[in-house]
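S1.2 Input.
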Amino acid sequence: MKVRQFLRKLSAAGCTIDESRGKGGHMVVRYKGRWTTVPHHGSSDLTPNFMRLVCKQIGLDPKEVM
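S1.3 Output.
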């Protein structure tokens, strides 16, 4: 899955994407008081394992996003 598509799905699930807080090519994703960073390097693909780890870090069910 592409980074932009993953960020859109996270946003639709209720996450807040803060583009100004990340450093360089990263963005901060917040969900119910928890946060993590997601790399945003153009049109690169994210692995399913990485997407599951991001969801786990912020306390979101991966089935809602993937």
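S1.4 Remarks. The mean pLDDT is 90.
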